[in-house]
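User: I'm putting together notes for a lab meeting next week and I want to include a structural view of one of the chains we've been expressing. I don't have a solved structure, so I'd like a prediction I can at least talk through. The sequence is below, exactly as it appears in our construct file.
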Amino acid sequence: MRPHILLLTTGGTIASLPTAEGLAPGLDGEALAGLLPQGIMDCYDITIRDILHLDSSNIQPEEWQTIARHVFENRMEYSGIVITHGTDTMAYTASVLSFMLRGISIPVVLTGAQLPMAHPLSDGMENLRTALAMAASGVPGVFLAFDRKVILGCRAVKTRTTDFDAFESVNWPLAANVDGKGLQIHREAIPAPAGACALRDKLCDKVFLIKLTPGLDPEIFNMLLQMHYRGIVIEAFGAGGLHFVRRI
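Assistant: Thanks for the context. Below is the predicted structure for the 248-residue chain, given as structure tokens.
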């Protein structure tokens, strides 16, 4: 029996076509899947749903909620779920879904491409192949599949703008990789789900990220307080150092 996979499409470069103003999402899920070799399609029973049609720079908390709700509502009907997504904010989406869908009992795998799927040199086909294999693995969790690597959703970061090897796993081993033996899953790197999955889709967008630079004026915190921000994340120096002379 073939694994039953749900493919959710959101747009992004993988689904883009050239326009007069540059690349823009232009392929729906059926067209995207139609570019996969028949041999791949024969390995899975794929259901396709187009839920968004956006460049990932326009993916915001409201879209995270839309994606999370689709995954949660369909988690019992499929072996795994693949989400195609633009690369610019894919790591953000993968991370937040890891927390919105804690305890998910199936694999949820985000992927995309640096070149559109319709481009003859696209990396999209290989990334989709990896994502589908991980989605059919039965290993629960939220993951990001790219360049034959599978990364825990909450550990992925985009480090390269145009290279196919675009994402790295931050301070954590890969969840899986593809080599001459196929998909190699590193179960010791994948936390076991704890408890039943519950949808945590209430988000607060009043959180501000500050990248600390030498000489930062602390009055910015007063400004953020006046703007009713409820939390501030400080990206500090090294292991967490802050400057404390002349600016306090």
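A couple of points you could mention at the meeting. The radius of gyration is 19 Å. The CA atoms of residues 212 and 238 lie 11 Å apart.

User: Perfect, that's what I needed.
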